[in-house]
Amino acid sequence: MSIVGLAHRGYPKQYPENTLVSFQAALDLSYSHLELDVNLTKDGVPVVIHDPTVNRTTNGKGRVLDYTWEELQKLRTDGEQTIPTLEDVLKLARGKAKVDIELKQSGSLYTGMEEKVLEVIRSCDVQDQVFITSFDHYSIQRTRQLSSDIEIGLVIYGATPSIFPYAKELGAKYISVKYIYLTDDYVRMCEENGIQLIAWTIDDEAAMRQMRKQYPQVWVCTNELEKWKACVLETAAN
After folding, report:
1. Residue 50 catalytic?
2. Known catalytic residue: 8?
3. What pTM did the predictor assign?
């Protein structure tokens, strides 16, 4: 059965985050969704890496924006993996899992990021298998202006009711919230507004069980893929 949940940067507890081997591991565990992060290279290529720099996850130093795609390919993670392009991951996931593409836009850091990401989505012909999210809501607004039909979502830290009018205005279908802020009222408000709520990032087994029991309709984003899969299968059996 498909495990309804978001594999956070693939399976980072077992493999280098945001790499093809990490995403493949999530697909092998039958996850319904992959979650990934996109930054932009100097020559405008959307690449899958969480930080705006390569310092933490590779053997290189400096900003992603200061590397060309060809230069980035010379860097390696601890597991000797390379930084994939968004196109690489979308082709890997096509027909197997839906992809939450989180834009790591920060103000005007990446000129044209939203347009370039949409171009990759269209070239891979996966418009119905992705949705685009970001903490930078201006970036999501630009995405909506560029595409009236792509699915979009808003990432926030704490739960706030003020997000619902804005989500309606943009036609956003998803809201991602840090899981500790969820309440019965907030989950209910999401349902009433036609929003799919995503709780991030739950790695504690007890918290997983509580979330599954209390809010089975909420999608969980996790680094602990096998723990969440076991939780889902256990509750399904009961």
Report:
1. yes
2. yes
3. 0.98
